[in-house]
């Protein structure tokens, strides 16, 4: 699929095709959010685990739908509507203007609605900007989303279960969690490199693989630093990926 190709739906009509792709990806996003709202409300998982499972699956799953859209700015902007709507949603809930206990339970650490204007909003902003600005031809978008979703999400799950050995400079983080984060971010990044290369959006190479490894290790180090605890992982990890990725992938 060439850089200027049309969408998977209605290739001859990019607008109609992109709107169909938007409908499909919106159904995915809505369904996934609804599932995790239900599991949170019913107590299927512990609240922190429920939050991290949503954290992992939403962004990674959203990227699977990118090939449905047309290439170029139109497809990128229309696709970005999916996470963009969630920026408004978590902002309204986090400011107390809208009450939605199910969403609060599925996205917050401690059940406080005000948490949504921090981590969850940074998360939605990251997905929106990576999609609208970098899009599927950029390894920066892949690294940013994969290290945020897979990396940070797996780090918390593994760290809580196996993180007995704490990192000296941050007692809240463990070696197991940081290693898991670097591995998950790297593996998922390489996976999406191969996925997008199937459609001709990106050219797979050992240089890209090496770049993903560097960015994933750096992201894990940033996530383990106390500064990430202070300013939120969902903000610091994407920033690190974008800044370092700009240098590594240039």
UniProtKB/TrEMBL annotation:
One of its GO terms (molecular function) is kinase activity. InterPro entries: Phytol/farnesol_kinase. It is found in: Plastid, Chloroplast membrane. The chain crosses the membrane at residues 12-33, 53-69, 75-98, 119-135, 175-194, 206-222. GO terms for cellular component: chloroplast membrane. Keywords: Chloroplast, Kinase, Membrane, Plastid, Transferase, Transit peptide, Transmembrane, Transmembrane helix. It is a multi-pass membrane protein. It comes from the Eukaryota. Belongs to the polyprenol kinase family. This is Phytol kinase.
């Amino acid at each position: 699929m060439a850089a200027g190709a049309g969408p998977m739906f209605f290739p001859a009509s990019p607008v109609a095709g992109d709107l169909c792709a938007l409908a499909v990806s919106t159904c995915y996003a809505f369904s996934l959010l609804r599932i995790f709202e239900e599991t949170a409300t019913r107590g299927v998982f512990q609240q922190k685990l429920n939050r991290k499972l949503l954290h992992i699956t939403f962004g990674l799953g959203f990227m699977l739908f990118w090939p449905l859209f047309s290439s170029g700015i139109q497809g990128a902007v229309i696709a970005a509507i999916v996470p963009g709507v969630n920026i408004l949603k978590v902002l309204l809930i986090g400011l107390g203007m809208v009450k939605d206990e199910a969403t609060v339970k599925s996205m917050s650490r401690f059940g406080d609605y005000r948490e949504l204007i921090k981590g969850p909003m940074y998360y939605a902003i990251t997905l929106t900007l990576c999609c609208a600005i970098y899009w599927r031809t950029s390894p920066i978008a892949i690294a940013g989303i994969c290290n945020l979703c897979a990396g940070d999400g797996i780090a918390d799950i593994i760290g809580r279960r196996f993180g007995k050995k704490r990192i000296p400079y941050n007692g809240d983080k463990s070696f197991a969690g940081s290693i898991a984060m670097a591995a998950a971010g790297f593996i998922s990044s390489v996976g999406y490199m191969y996925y997008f290369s199937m459609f001709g959006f990106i050219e797979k190479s050992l240089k890209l693989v090496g770049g993903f490894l560097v960015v994933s290790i750096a992201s894990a180090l940033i996530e383990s630093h106390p500064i990430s605890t202070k300013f939120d992982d969902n903000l610091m990890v994407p920033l690190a990926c974008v800044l370092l990725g700009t240098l590594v992938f240039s």
